[in-house]
Write a structure and sequence with these properties.
Order of helices and strands: HHHHHH
Radius of gyration: 18 Å
Number of helices: 6
Structural class: mainly alpha
Oligomer: single chain
Strand content: under 5%
Number of strands: 0
Helix content: over 70%
Largest sheet: none
Shape: globular
């Protein structure tokens, strides 16, 4: 177990803590709970950056990290979007779009891993979508004055970039699948 993997596990543990703080803050039983949740969300993002940096710089990239790191990120993002939707900060359909996208990504990535031993890697459009999503989620959580309509418009921008990323990951899926199938045909 190396430091990047420990940071990833810590990020996974932050997800239920985030949900707890957000829910307790939103229902009024914990003063500042939403702000604590926003702090955990930011901390999770910082540990994501840190574990990626350490893993690459010190050559500590592991198969566990390749799978668990994006899982931790997606769990935190989905938890945040779900909390925003359930408590009326954004439209519910936005959560549904993000959830559907993540299910498609998990399905496609698991097929590539199982069938071709290929681990899907992060690419530029996914990183851009993640940064925009991060900024919007934090802003919506921290600034109570943002109306549901404005917050939903902000999240629509995130949806747009997320769909671009999904399209690019789909192209990656098709390219990897075709190249691996071609190699299998050549080897037979």
């Amino acid at each position: 177990m190396n430091i990047p993997n420990i940071l990833t596990i810590a990020r996974l543990c932050m997800v239920p803590a985030f949900v707890f703080c957000y829910v307790k803050g939103s229902d009024g039983t914990m003063a500042g709970g939403v702000y604590f949740a926003a702090g955990l969300f930011v901390l999770a993002a910082l540990t994501d950056i840190l574990d990626g940096y350490i893993a690459r710089k010190y050559n500590q990239i592991t198969d566990f990290g390749k799978l668990a790191d994006p899982l931790a990120d997606k769990m935190m993002q989905i938890a945040a979007i779900a909390c925003l939707a359930v408590y009326g900060r954004i439209a519910l359909w936005i959560f549904c779009v993000f959830l559907a996208k993540e299910i498609l990504m998990i399905f496609g990535a698991s097929r590539l891993l199982k069938r071709f031993k290929f681990v899907v890697y992060s690419e530029w459009s996914g990183k851009i979508a993640t940064v925009i999503l991060f900024v919007c989620i934090v802003a919506i959580m921290v600034f109570d004055g943002i109306s549901q309509k404005t917050a939903s418009i902000m999240m629509c921008v995130c949806v747009f970039f997320t769909l671009i990323a999904l399209f690019n990951y789909y192209k990656m899926y098709v390219k990897v699948k075709e190249s691996r199938l071609q190699k299998q045909r050549e080897n037979n």
